[in-house]
Design goal:
The protein is mainly β. The protein has helices at about 1-25, 245-250, and strands at about 35-40, 55, 70-75, 80-85, 85-90, 100-105, 105-115, 115-125, 130-140, 155-160, 165-170, 185-190, 200-205, 210-215, 215-220, 235-245, 260-275.
Amino acid sequence: MKKFIIVLLVIGTIAFLSFLYFSKTYTTNIKSDELTLVWSDDFDYNGLPDSSKWDYDTEGNVYGWGNNEEQYYTVANPENAIVKNGKLFITALNKPYGEKDFTSARLVSKADWQYGRIEVNAKLPDGRGTWAAIWAMPGGWSFEDGNWPDVGEIDIMEHVGHDLGVIHASAHSKDYQWQKQTQQTGAIYFSDVSTNFHTYTLNWTPDYMQAFVDDSLFFEYHNEGLGVSKWPYDKPFYLILNVAVGGIWGNSKGIDTTAFPQTMEVDYVRVYQKK
């Protein structure tokens, strides 16, 4: 009996020390006092999004963005993307444009970064059929370049209106992708994502990436050292903010057309890197 108790104590001690080691190595490796702000938009102006910081992505409109999405992303249309009262408003409208029944905006940062911390403080839409996202793609890549998901994709926050409050973060690559149901992914539930602002954060180093809602870690993926088919993230990525309508995921329970307009409000975007 004593030997059994000793074995349990040894196992427990090893497990506790391992937890401390990995927590120190991975969870706290990016410390606030080691970071410096390298790019930001606090939306302390009025009008269209700052053209020195943001551009509009429209290349995938005619293809439904590969997801059978129902929106047409516009360019410099204040109905779909406007800054006022210290916030960025990205709004999806039930308004036909061409062959699409909805319009919205897909903003992309003109800067890209390799590693660091990305923080986006936002309030999300709640309408059934909406698909709001804060995510990143490799610098210089565009929809018409193809080669997805081999090039890599980092999803900091995805939220679909039919699953209100469930926040997803994922990493997609050649070997880890949603078509195969092998993507590296995590989810967390916050009941008030459409009524209150939360901070959606990515910590990204050569060794791992983590996603948080506020201070809650809910996704962690470690570089296995097995090559770019699993970890194509050692290069700069740019940031994307968008509200899609429908699509393979967003439309899985239909679109409530009476719920529109639907808006993602963004209070700030901040990018930090090690000093």
